[in-house]
Design goal:
Blueprint lengths: L17 E3 L2 E3 L5 E4 L2 H4 L8 H11 L12 H12 L5 E5 L2 H18 L7 E5 L8 H7 L2 H4 L9 E4 L4 H7 L4 E6 L2 E2 L5 E2 L2 H14 L2 E5 L14 H4 L5 E4 L10 E5 L20 H14 L4 H22 L4 E7 L2 E6 L3 H10 L2 E2 L1 E3 L3 E4 L7 H23 L8
Parallel strand pairs: 3-15, 5-6, 5-7, 7-10, 10-11
Antiparallel strand pairs: 1-2, 2-3, 4-12, 8-9, 11-12, 13-14, 14-17, 16-17
Amino acid sequence: MASHLLPTYARIDLAFERGEGAWLITAEGDRYLDFTTGVAVNVLGHAHPHLVEALTEQAKKVWHVSNLYRIPEGERLAARLCEASFADLVFFQNSGAEALECAIKMARKYQSASGKPERYRIVTFEGAFHGRTLTTIAATGNKKYLEGFGPPVQGFDQVPFGDIEAVKKAIGPETAAILIEPIQGEGGVRVAAPEFLRALRQLCDQHDILLMFDEVQTGFARTGELFAYQRSGVTPDIMSLAKALGGGFPVGACLSTAEAGKGMTAGTHGSTFGGNPLAMAVGNAVLDVIMKPGFIDHVCKISVLLKQRLAEIRDRYPTVIAEVRGEGLLIGLRAVNPSSELVDELRAEKMITVGAGDNVVRLLPPLILSEPEMVEAVNRIDRACARIAENHARPPKAGAA
């Protein structure tokens, strides 16, 4: 039967009926180990009882009232996020792209409120991914996302990732901010060096421009800290969050210092659905679990064990895996052959993963992954790599071109 969905996704012919923890289950009962988690979204796995209870209880009360009125659960979640981070202010939305839109507007408005309205340009980095709106694809700068949508939104100056001299050259009298992912997820799990982030902070302070971190993919313990900026000791002025914040429910957030957010006064920004009671109940439930003593310690322990085992696989199959990279449970396997081959072979092992730039396969397991499940994942990766190595070692058939 023909689908009536807009064909913007090359969807895999695979559907899941339910999930349990780190597993997804088809209607036929086939169990898949989920190392995609909705692209770093389902941090607590599937059908986590605390999240189910929070959503169910709130659904019995009130779903939506709009931001014309106070939403106590949103006020509570904002306070908890600020207490756990550098921030003083929070604005809730429904997605990462919306969180980035808010961050970009906030940076420009800060400069305008500071008497420098000519400052509106933002320095961004090659390999970045900031969303699919017209503004965020312009910030991303990838030609394949920009093609066919008319002139790109103006105001972005893209430079090579990690090149501090290029950043210095890009800063001019119209520069308002620098926007960076501490770890580029879509770009191939490329980690920004702490010294590079420190140099960006110094440049921002020197030129009175804002440092903005896109932590849509890295936020909420994914990297072994609650937020990735805490790994480097570099504090941004604005930070965008989404994905893990709702554990699968659509939630985004833009966090800022009081100074960076000073221009965002009544009427300057808004969202019909953002921060609604359902989303806020789930967001608070996610924090309940992640902030429990020992949770992030578990992420760090499993991460170390997993990366050790992956390094062994890399050594065993150097014709399949060139490099293991990443932090925490945001791990990339840079493939020797097309990364799609490894993604397909892992799916044949009933383990789902997702590709990224730089010929990388991303491993994004739920943060509740147990040690036996980690071992099971390693065994499936080993078998997939063995098949790929064997296939590429076979001599070509007689008569083959």
